[in-house]
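Q: Convert this sequence to structure tokens.
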Amino acid sequence: MRTYTVSVYGVRERDELAAMSDAYAECVGGSLKLKGVSSGGVKKKKKKKSKAEEVVEVVEKVEEKAEEVKNTRTSAEKAYAAVQAKRQKQKVLEKAKKTHKQRVEEMNKYLDTLTEHFDIPKFPLSFQLLYIHKFRANIMYSTKLARGEVHVVRSW
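A:
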């Protein structure tokens, strides 16, 4: 398809593809070049082998010290730790027996057996408005009292 462009210099005939490529003719391609930066990119630091060996030695020393600490416990302390580990294993096994759904059902049954004394009280709207009105009145009274606008005399 041939297109024609009209300009100050006259009418010109152009291809549609040539018109599209002309739009990008003035753009500079390639990556951005920064001054003072080498084109090598980011280089990773190499780990030193000597430090790795030192770390292994330190870890071994810490493990040896931990073993020494474990050996200084009394027989009663060792027995206590064994009983604690046994109880913890039993608790884990008991929890693993039930699925989440079963635990939720048990909790719902327990909540159903509770009395409604502990439930959230449900007031009609008229009572709610009455309590809000009393609450606001108490706040206004206490602010007036703080300002010294009200003098309270109580005799009983």
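DSSP finds five helices and two strands in the chain.
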